[in-house]
Amino acid sequence: MSANPRILLDADALRANLARVRALAPRAKVLAVVKADAYGHGLVPVARALAGADGFAVARVAEGIALRRAGIGHPVVVLGGFFDRGEAEACGRHRLDPVIHDPDQLPWLPEDVRPWIKFDSGMHRLGLGEAAFRKIVSRLAPRRPVLMTHLACADETDNPATAEQLRHFGRLCEGTAFERSCANSAAILAWPQSHGDWVRPGLMLYGISPFPGRSGAELGLRPAMAFRARLIAVRELPTGEAVGYGGAWVARRPTRLGVVAAGYGDGYPREVQPETSVWIGGRRAPVVGRVSMDLLTVDLTDHPGIAPGAEVELWGPNLPVEEIAACAGTIPYTLVCGVTARVARIETERSEDGARQGCL
């Protein structure tokens, strides 16, 4: 039994979340977003678990090539498009469909890919202005491109910017018969008028809420990641003893201090505040002292039966990552994407008798 931290990837949860997307947008095809190593969950295992999607979206050409080398045959869209001739040629060789967001890409566009043409409706990162968009759509019409935009404020359900972006994009696409794609996770959940022909779920596929102050469970989603480690020591401290770097936490009573084999070197946020908990022995226990690179400490005074070797959940089904992100003053994306390479990823499946089965 290793004490090293690990990520458990729940493939059943991924499929359940995909089914939730389909229930919310039943007339749309699903482009599952697996960029950034599938939001830290593992690119290839996630793509295999989500084989029921209609296609996958990645940010960069190299991510698409990794899917092809793993035997993934679905359509793969490169959201960042290609940057130079070499990347364009790689899109052709590996059958990757690039997003066109700049007229300078056109001379390199391979003949045998389906382009997605991006209109900048207000995000102002990548995307074409109106005149360039109309011109490129007309030029590439024989290829039956997908027309797309990206919503900047869909997670703010009372922000009129989303409705205005959708109106702007809709007006621009009038008179075309091409497929359209606007909706990210927040829009799938909160803006049904955005669904169009292709939805692009990302965060919600992993069971995480895109809305501040809400959990994935509240939205009918199941967390796909459980970040776990082991308790490796228990110390008895008298009142008044300080713990960790800088002595930032001082015991106010005789304390059973637990030492957990995980730290910011594994991706657990150093910035967590005193109200942060871990899950151990079926209950919460508070994190105390500063998180260090390889270890963190918890107060086990109210958990008298907990001994070294106990499993500790840092976030997962019992402890929403949204909560831990809030305690660290950040967003869930940064936590799941920030789990480091030294943390083992283990995929789990549910067997016929209901037991969890793990495989590296």
Characterise the protein shown here.
By secondary structure, this protein is of the alpha/beta class. It folds into two domains: 11-206, TIM Barrel; 225-359, Lyase, Ornithine Decarboxylase, Chain A, domain 1. 24% of the residues lie in helices and 24% in strands. The chain has helices spanning 11-24, 35-39, 43-49, 61-69, 85-93, 130-139, 161-173, 185-190, 321-327, 332-337, and strands at residues 6-10, 29-33, 55-58, 76-78, 96-100, 116-118, 146-148, 180-181, 198-199, 225-237, 242-243, 249-250, 255-260, 277-280, 283-288, 296-299, 311-315, 344-350, 356-359. The strands form three sheets. An eight-stranded parallel β-sheet has the order 8-7-6-5-4-3-2-9. Strands 10-13-16-15-14-17 form a six-stranded antiparallel β-barrel. The longest helix has 14 residues, at 11-24. Residues 351-357 have low confidence and may be disordered. InterPro entries: Ala_racemase, Ala_racemase/Decarboxylase_C, Ala_racemase_C, Ala_racemase_N, Ala_racemase_pyridoxalP-BS, PLP-binding_barrel. Its EC number is 5.1.1.1. It is an enzyme of class 5 (isomerase).
**Which CATH class of the largest domain?**
Alpha Beta
User: Which structural category fits the helices and strands?
Assistant: alpha/beta
Helix content: 10-25%
Give me the CATH architecture of the largest domain, please: Alpha-Beta Barrel
Secondary-structure map:
Blueprint: E1 6-10, H1 11-24, E2 29-33, H2 35-39, H3 43-49, E3 55-58, H4 61-69, E4 76-78, H5 85-93, E5 96-100, E6 116-118, H6 130-139, E7 146-148, H7 161-173, E8 180-181, H8 185-190, E9 198-199, E10 225-237, E11 242-243, E12 249-250, E13 255-260, E14 277-280, E15 283-288, E16 296-299, E17 311-315, H9 321-327, H10 332-337, E18 344-350, E19 356-359
Parallel strand pairs: 1-18, 2-3, 2-9, 3-4, 4-5, 5-6, 6-7, 7-8
Antiparallel strand pairs: 1-10, 10-13, 10-17, 11-12, 13-16, 14-15, 14-17, 15-16, 18-19
